[in-house]
Amino acid sequence: MHSRLRQTLMAGMAALCMGTTATAEELSFVTGGQGGSWYGIGAGLAEVLSREGIDVSVEIGGGMSNIVAVSRGDSQIGMTNGFAVPMAAKGEEPFTEPTGGVTALGVFMLSIIQVPVLESSGITSYEELRGQDTCLLPLSASSTIAFQKVLAGYDMTEEDTRLSRGNLGYCVDQMKDRKVVATSGATAMPVGSFSELSASVPVKFLSVSDSAFEKIVAENGAFVRVEMPAGVYRGMEEPVPTLGTQALLIAGDALSEQEGYAIVKALHTHIEDVRKIHSGMADLTVESLSSVAGLELHPGAQRYFREIGVIQ
Length: 312
Hints:
The protein is of the alpha/beta class. Helix content is about 35%, strand content about 20%. The protein folds into two domains: about 5-110 and about 245-305, D-Maltodextrin-Binding Protein, domain 2 (3-Layer(aba) Sandwich); about 115-245, Periplasmic binding protein-like II (D-Maltodextrin-Binding Protein, domain 2), CATH 3.40.190.10. Helix 9 crosses helix 12 (about 300-305).
């Protein structure tokens, strides 16, 4: 972990000494990969939690692998996308077996499927990605699985493209160098790497058709219809219809009820600062934080949300 971040987080130990509600040990928090939004968001959340004496180590992770890490107790808290939860429960690929034992601390934002393509490629639809050079994140990343789900709505797989893999920063660099024509991310808008990409080369973002959306939702009901607003990236003059899913903070049995309670209380107590971490969290409320779909709340989160009256 970067020294500056560790120094910030260790400030939480001072709060512990003064008697505030805090975790007894440092918690492992698995977030996202390099070049995406989640790692930075995780660092911001950790700084907020440190004010209440909750000491957190922010780790690189992926939306799919984070479920496994939390389920096994390798990490106490993590991030994932809502559509991954039913996949884990069923043992659907890339999970090798049914994976449970995961609960939710809350919804921190909406993850948006964003697929930039080089404007010079002439590609205007997902079907036109057939045979094209595409760079995707590893299978541990929920962004990759989300992209696979969208392709399935067009009766395609990622193997229909000429595929390479890397972290998001690598894939964006490949697009800048015109070695690939497309990549994908399922996260909050704007993605810093995509803002940088659109400032460097002309790109457009692919829309998801209504017929494809219906097929995708029939297979996994955790997706919802959303629009990327005009102007979120340079050159985007019109809204782009796509898909979204809840981005969840998750925990497992390794996180005690008291620790879960303390985390959710800290996020609520400092919700104005939480909103400033990323523009995708600007409208966060305690009600939206508690509005988890398709996953049971962690006992500590349940206790806190009931205590303040936002759930029954």
